[in-house]
Amino acid sequence: MRPARGHDGISVMATRTIGSGQVGRSVPRLEGAAKVTGRADYVHNLRLPKMLIGKIFRSTVAHGRIKSIDVSAAKALPGVYRVVTIDDIKAVIPHPFYGPAFHDQPILADGKVHYVGEPVAVVLATDPHIAEEAASLIEADYDELPAVFDEIEAMTSKAVVHDELKPAGTFPDLKHLKGKKDTNIALDFHLRRGDTKKAFAEAEHVFEHTFRSQQVLHVPLEPFVSVAELTETGLTIHTASQSPSFVRIEIARLLGWPENKVRVKVPYLGGGFGAKLYIKLEALVAALALLVQRPVKISLTMEEQFYTLTKHAATFRIKSAVKNGKVTGRDCEVWWNGGAYADIGPRITQKSGFTAPGPYDIENVSIDSYSLYTNLTPAGALRGFGIPQLVWAYESHTDMMARSLKLDPVDFRRNNILRDGRAQATGTAMKDAAIEAVLDRLALRMNMKAPFDRGTGTLKKGRGIAVGFKASISPTTSIAIVNIAADGSVTLYCSTVDMGQGSDTANAQFVAEILNVPAESVKVVHPDTDVTPYDMATLGSRSLYHMGNAVRLAAEDAKAKLAALAREVGVPEGSNVPVAELFQKKYKMQAGNIIGTGSYIPNYVPPDANGLTPDATPFWMVGGTGVEVEVDTETGHVKVTKMINVADVGRPVNPRIVETQLSGAATMQFGFTMQEKIEFDGGQITNASFADYKIPSIVDIPRTMQNEAVESEQGTGPFGAKGVGESGTFGVSPAIANAIEDACGVRLTELPLTAEKIYRALRTAQGKPLED
Amino acid sequence: MTPFELAEPKSLKEAVGLLDADDPTIRPIAGGTALMLMMKAGVFRPSKLVSLGGIKELRSIAIANGELKVGATTPLAVLEHSDEVRNHAPVITRTLRTLSNIRVRNVATVGGALAHADPHMDLPPVLIALGARVVVQGKKGERTIPIADLFAGYYETVLAKDELIASLIVPAQNGRRAAYLKCTTRAVHDWPALGVAVSLATEGNGIKDVSIVVSAATETPRRLAGAEKAAQGASDEAGWRRAGEAAAEEAELITDAQGSAAYKKQLVRVHVARALRAALGAE
Ligand SMILES: Cc1cc2nc3c(=O)[nH]c(=O)nc-3n(C[C@H](O)[C@H](O)[C@H](O)COP(=O)(O)OP(=O)(O)OC[C@H]3O[C@@H](n4cnc5c(N)ncnc54)[C@H](O)[C@@H]3O)c2cc1C
Asked: How far is B12 from chain A (nearest CA, A)?
């Protein structure tokens, strides 16, 4: 048996409640009991009268023109209601293309297929087994086209994924998108600050390394699922989505309807991690429901998730100039493998791209970041939004430089760290970013200055750290409504999706703090676009900050109205007359409401031609990880024996949730670091199942994992708070690679860090490389 | 999945009678943990499944004449918790704890774990090392097959389509020691990239009579005669390593998603030596 897990917890924060004691308290998750007793609502459980089930027939080629689709055998199968291709879809949606950055993705393949697994046709039946059987009877014939899979090759490839590029123009930060015709470049972002040429010319040392991250999967335990039904007033979509407001607007656009005819309802999600954003199955079920005038449900299998969205693979070439222990110049080139449809890849390319030089104070920087189309499953947001791919490179690079310069890795970092007030690569001055505090706490808790047992015989030990940062996306809007009923009970309406991160609980805490009621008594209404107001989406750790600010404003508005009511009914200021009595006094019975509203959008200045802006982001997230590892030098097996995650989350709103967000994020990135990889063979995924795609289980993750939030305050955040969902991912991969080199002297530059790769590197280092 | 017929016989004879030597779409189903996955993936589309779940005579564990006899539909979890099994061959108990997970072990059966013939499975190499055999029931009667001869290839046994495994027999071990090392490369809980089972008797400090079996990295679980010879008399680290070296030379290894053949060669080298060391330290 393994010993009990170490949980040092975040005792530092547990005492930091304020005012009425609701913020800063580890309120148990409001939905916890419903979830563990199986009462929570999920779209998977939804069944509607006369509902049809759709099963998708998918492309078997990576790139090709569709010559014919033979659906006759599928149609002939008893029990099949209808077989649908894009020609049918066009009868209800003439221009069936969607996407947040480009309108490049068709509801079903239109003339061409762009990746293996792309939806080509759908079978509808009341019995899912019949639908599935019928889908397997469909045959498509393709004229295969040359395909491109690698992001570097995509830069110059003759194989071009899309004949035409169609910018969406939806989001203000992506208005400039054009794409480059006859290339695979969806977006190229360039930043120039200072004079890197001069810095390299004057450097004492120049280091250049290239790193690669692989495609991995989100693996929510609830796969994608959506249901559409026609109602007398329009269309209702029940969907496991992180972005109900976007779904409503995009479906309304596709149908040419006003927004208020489309209703999007989201109950709980069984995990999202960035996969369930924008449009996934929603446009398809909407079109199908309109076509057959019956409710339609599509729920994907675990395997089908591999054909829906992945994390970006990326190659990052990083080059640094060093003088007197200072990094004086840095060149970054990043190529993002976006797959067949852009999804939100262009935003990753730019928003994450501008942090590519890392949390260091570097005078001269140049960044070239490319969002590339390839003939693979589309890539999109995944917990960290590109940042883990970047930190993997720059923090491995940092250690490699320190090692080569014989400098202590902590001192070298501290010597170059980006402090508040100093300009980041974009020129935006850092504010409320506790980068140095994270580094210091990490070094202290890892005991980096103390001697270390390096192991004996074939078992070698090592340790490593890494620190990364992220800018919140901007500008985005959140709106909230707080409703006080006549008995004083409080309801919050907002479109933030609780997908397991605890947003309902945190938002209830904000309301409770301001209105001085227990957080447990606040009801949070789940996203329903007929009822809850607009929110950009639940993504990028933005909600606690943006929605939190909107909720705070709404609650303050309600509080002000409550005070006005008190004045109106003649109750003196500061008296403790119960709220219910105020309503009684005014309405002479239990009646009425007070409605408070709040709307929040931060300031933002778009980058200029050099990629520079004085206001790149409303807040910075900072996260660092330290690990100790044991390497079996006979097999290359690595065991991470200890992991410490430290982050700047501003003021922790709910310390227990902060801790589980940090450990959860770190565990997820641990899987991406050590074991997970989507394997492709000529564009075909060869491990699209959980028998062969191994996510970490409880026995894989570090035996000791400790999480800490540093003392910090986000000035513009609600009660000093900021997002925490991703910060635990940042440092994990490079910290482990750094520790492996520390243990056994080999350096890996490609994820994942498998035992075989390590063993091969050890053999190569001994001058006895292992044959292929 | 498409509809199929499900038969639920009450006796072994009746079950065998429902099978057809010439019809691959009729198959026995025991725990269903392997078969149902194949059906869900569409690689097996049955016309009829013959469930062995209702055959009471096949669910048993007993010691007779110093031999351990286990009925084919005994769930792996029952085997795992059986005192008879632990006393007779503790290596089986230890192996079962690392075999998949509790949920699978609760329903998967001994017969299924042998008939499925996926070379990555854990029990076959162990049982080969222990010299075990199966009793097989066919339409014309019974026959006995050493487990070392049961596997014909990747997912293939020598069983006819109308034969059933009735029971497993593990002979008396007479103080022999055994160990099984499961080496995974993608996650701790995974199918092994390599399984190494050894069983040995000792004389003085040295190894006397040893069987060394590798699995998972090879097409079927295999005994390695050359390595066994090299291990004969070995009594120290250098000795185990010589055996590991011989095993690495001898085993025919496959490149797959869990590793290249070249890497697995190193894994064999290391794990055969470690398994011998572990067996000598074991009960
Ligand atoms: C998630 C998961 C993880 C796993 N991990 C491991 C692991 O780590 N190590 C490991 O060794 N195994 C592992 N397995 C495999 C597991 O051991 C097998 O699925 C199980 O042993 C099969 O037994 P069953 O009774 O469920 O067989 P079934 O699925 O019912 O049948 C399997 C095959 O055997 C045939 N069959 C069954 N009984 C008989 C009989 N009496 N006579 C003749 N033919 C018969 C069936 O026709 C079928 O072809 C794993 C399985 C799963 C689902």
From this structure: 32
- Band of pLDDT at residue A17, cut at 50, 70 and 90: confident
Could you say which residues from 176 to 195 on chain B have a Cβ atom under 8 Å away from some Cβ of chain A? 183, 185-191
The model's pLDDT over A572-584, given as tens digits with 9 standing for 90+, comes to 988 889 999 999 9
Chain-chain contact of B270 with A754 (C-beta, under 8 angstroms): no
Is a pLDDT exceeding 80 seen at residue A11? no
Q: What is this structure's pTM?
A: 0.96
Within 10 Å of residue A716's Cβ, how many Cβ atoms? Answer: 16
Q: Which residues contact B78 (CB under 8 A, 6 or more apart)?
A: B59, B61
Among B8, B16, B35, B92, name the best residue to mutate to test ligand 1's pocket (greatest count of ligand atoms within 8 A of Cβ).
B35
B119 lines ligand 1 (CB under 6 A): no
Chain B segment 64-123 residues within 8 A of A by beta carbon are: none
For A498, the token pair is 């609780």
- Ligand 1 lined by B267 (C-beta under 6 Å): no
Domains of chain B plus CATH, in order, are: 5-51 (3.30.43), 56-170 (3.30.465.10), 177-281 (3.30.390.50)
Exposure string for B204-222, b = 16+ CB within 10 A, e = fewer: eeebeebbbbbbbbbebbb
Distances (CA, A) of A595 to A141, A529, A570, A598, A657: 59, 18, 20, 10, 29
**Rg of chain B on CA atoms, in Å:** 19
Query: Rounded mean pLDDT of chain B?
Result: 96
Selection from A117, A186, A149, A388 nearest residue A273 by Cα? A388
Residue numbers of A annotated as active site? 726
* Local confidence band at B41 (pLDDT 50, 70, 90 cut-offs): confident
For residue A686, list chain B residues with Cβ-Cβ distance below 8 A: 257
Place of tokens 């291990």: B231
Peptide bond into A475 cis (omega under 30): yes
Give, in degrees to the nearest 5, the angle at Cα A97 between A342 and A214. 20
Cα–Cα dist B279/B283, whole Å: 8
Locate the chain A residue with the closest alpha carbon to B270.
A634
Which of B2, B41, B257 has the CB atom closest to A687's CB atom? Answer: B257
Cβ neighbourhood burial of B172 (10 Å; 0-12, 13-18, 19+): middle
Q: Which residue has the tokens 């928003």?
A: A351
pLDDT band for position B282 (cuts 50, 70, 90):
low
Using CA atoms, how far apart are residues A248 and A278, in angstroms rounded to an integer?
10
Q: How far is the CA of B196 from the centre of ligand 1 (A)?
A: 20
Q: How far is CA A28 from CA A6, A522, A565, B252, in A?
A: 21, 13, 33, 56
Kindly report the nearest CA distance between residue A635 and chain B, in angstroms.
6
Residue reference for tokens 């004085």: A614
B44, B118, B260, B263, best to mutate vs chain A, most A CBs in 10 Å: B263
In the beta sheet, which residues pair with residue B215? B195
What residues does A56 pair with on adjacent strands?
A: A122
Cβ A699–B188 below 8 Å, yes or no? yes
ipTM: 0.95
What does the pLDDT look like over B247-256, one tens digit per residue?
Answer: 999 999 999 9
Contact residues, chain B, for A133 at CB < 8 Å: 1-2
